[in-house]
Amino acid sequence: MLKISELAAKTGLSAHTIRFYEKHGLISASERSEAGYRYYNDADIRRAEFVKTARNIGFSLEDISQLLSIRVDKTSHSCQEVTDITQHKLDEVNAKIAELESMQHTLSILLESCCGGPEKATHCSIMEALEAGDVKKSRSAA
Amino acid sequence: MLKISELAAKTGLSAHTIRFYEKHGLISASERSEAGYRYYNDADIRRAEFVKTARNIGFSLEDISQLLSIRVDKTSHSCQEVTDITQHKLDEVNAKIAELESMQHTLSILLESCCGGPEKATHCSIMEALEAGDVKKSRSAA
DNA sequence: GTTGACCTTAGAGTAGACTCTAAGCTTATA
DNA sequence: TATAAGCTTAGAGTCTACTCTAAGGTCAAC
Question: CATH no. for residue A36?
Answer without folding.
Answer: 1.10.1660.10
